[in-house]
Amino acid sequence: MKIIAVCGMGIGTSVLLKMNAEKVLETLGVSAEVQAADISKAKIEGPTADIILTTPELVYQLEKMPGKIVAIEHVFDLVEIREKLSAALS
Questions:
Q1: Is the distance from CB of 18 to CB of 5 less than 8 angstroms?
Q2: Which residue positions in the chain have pLDDT lower than 50?
């Protein structure tokens, strides 16, 4: 499974999303490759991703991607990430 965490520049929010998604995936017992990316790289890598994690304001730029797009409001909220990631995995 491939997951891409996306933000505008690929060095801030996406890295936080990546780290927190990895924590959540570990607690769920799910093995996945998680990458951090900026919006440009996400448009290139996105077609091979099963799940794309991003903030709500970037969803419209990723809507044409075949993977499930998951909008995360609070990147530090592991409960939110767990709930939304669990829903995307099922």
A1: yes
A2: none
7 is catalytic: yes
CA distance readout (Å), 56 to 28, 32, 36, 42, 50:
24, 23, 16, 15, 18
Question: Active-site residue among 4, 5, 6, 7?
Answer: 7
CA distance 38 to 43: 9
For the segment 31-46, what is each residue's pLDDT rounded down to a tens digit? Answer: 999 999 999 988 888 7
d(Cα 40, Cα 21) in Å, to the nearest integer?
Answer: 21
